[in-house]
Write a structure and sequence with these properties.
Blueprint (H helix, E strand, L loop, with lengths): L9 E3 L5 E3 L1 E4 L8 H14 L3 E3 L7 H13 L9 E6 L6 H15 L4 E6 L27 H13 L3 E7 L3 H8 L10 E5 L7 H9 L3 E5 L22 H10 L3 H11 L3 E4 L4 H8 L8 H8 L26
Parallel strand pairs: 3-4, 3-10, 4-5, 5-6, 6-7, 7-8, 8-9, 9-10
Antiparallel strand pairs: 1-2
């Protein structure tokens, strides 16, 4: 797996498909109207983003799909220029629910296929219409599904042409090994999408993934959206970090651009999420400068193994991923 940032903005996946190294994230908190996802996605495509990261769970795939179709219709892009990711939510882990879940997303998007379909989390929840099923005491209603069975159903979606590539998200090393060592494995996960930024550098997981030819895709690369449902309100503000800001000043860049470039130079695919036109443009301008080895070392030193998203709702599940070191 090689990543040549100067000449190519793509990384070759272990199944032969190519993924743009910089992606546009579409998650938004509940109070943001879904129409904003449509407008922001159109801006992102106009700016140059070709990798759009979305999910069934975000509940805005109609809006994002509309943006893609508008940009295809007006000639800005062709469908094959775009790399679209959607995710299998936790309530659909049972093998018989996997393909119908992907078909639901495709219907919302009005697309024939997605480029990447990933298991959103290794934790299974009770199947049904509710995204976050809870009991009378407000505790998550968990489900027990063998992830290897879920993976087999993902493989069938690839064989059916509904997705070009398949992967996982929020998996630790042991959970990746469970899939990799599965008897009769047909396709390895192409990627593992995890939280990663200067306060959570994920060195060990990155090295493990590289050794297995699995691309690490970084979300919350700029810190986090601080959605109170997911993130502690006393969390540190990554982009206010004095060292990041000093390096940004040296390069006449924003702290956000430094954070994104740092991850790209470590050989990751990076997702940048913003619904502000100015920021979307800024986040795309990370290919025309380079951090020095000294800069990289200084940012390495910011690691505190700090997670913005701890997935507290799933902490009692046997597959809760963050009990392991990596």
């Amino acid at each position: 797996m090689t990543m040549d940032l100067k000449n190519s903005r793509l990384v070759k996946l272990n199944d032969g498909n190519f993924m743009p190294v910089l992606g546009f994230g579409t998650y938004a908190t509940e109070e943001i109207p879904k129409s904003q996802a449509r407008e922001a996605t159109k801006v992102a495509i106009d700016v140059g983003f070709r990798h759009i990261d979305a999910a069934y769970f975000y509940q805005n795939e109609e809006a994002v799909g509309a943006a893609l179709r508008e940009k295809i219709a007006d000639g800005t892009v062709k469908r094959e220029d775009l790399f679209y990711t959607t995710k299998l939510w936790c309530t659909f882990h049972r093998p018989e629910l996997v393909r119908p879940a992907l078909e639901k997303s495709l219907k919302k998007l009005q697309l024939d296929y997605v480029d990447l379909f990933i298991i959103h989390m290794p934790v299974s929840l009770k199947p049904g219409e509710e995204l976050m099923p809870k009991d009378a005491n407000g505790k998550s209603i968990l489900d027990k599904v063998d992830l290897r069975d879920t993976w087999e159903a993902m493989e069938k979606c690839k064989d059916a042409g509904l997705t070009k590539s398949i992967g996982v998200s929020n998996f630790n090393r042991k959970q990746l090994e469970l899939i990799l060592n599965k008897p009769g494995l047909k396709y390895k996960p192409t990627c593992n999408q995890v939280e990663c930024h200067p306060y959570l550098t994920q060195n060990k997981l990155l090295e493990f993934c590289k050794s297995k030819d699995i691309v690490l895709v970084a979300y919350s690369a700029l810190g986090s959206h601080r959605d109170p449902n997911w993130v502690g309100q006393d969390s540190p503000y990554l982009l206010e970090d004095p060292i990041l800001n000093a390096i940004a000043k040296k390069h006449s860049r924003s702290p956000g651009q430094i954070a994104l470039r740092y991850l790209l130079q470590r050989g990751m695919v990076v997702l940048a999420k913003s619904f502000s036109e100015k920021r979307i443009k800024e986040n795309f301008e990370v290919f025309n400068f380079e951090l020095t080895p000294e800069d990289m070392k200084a940012i390495d030193g910011l690691n505190k193994n700090f997670r913005y998203g701890t997935l507290k709702f799933a902490v009692d599940h046997p597959n809760y991923p963050f009990s392991e070191e990596y």
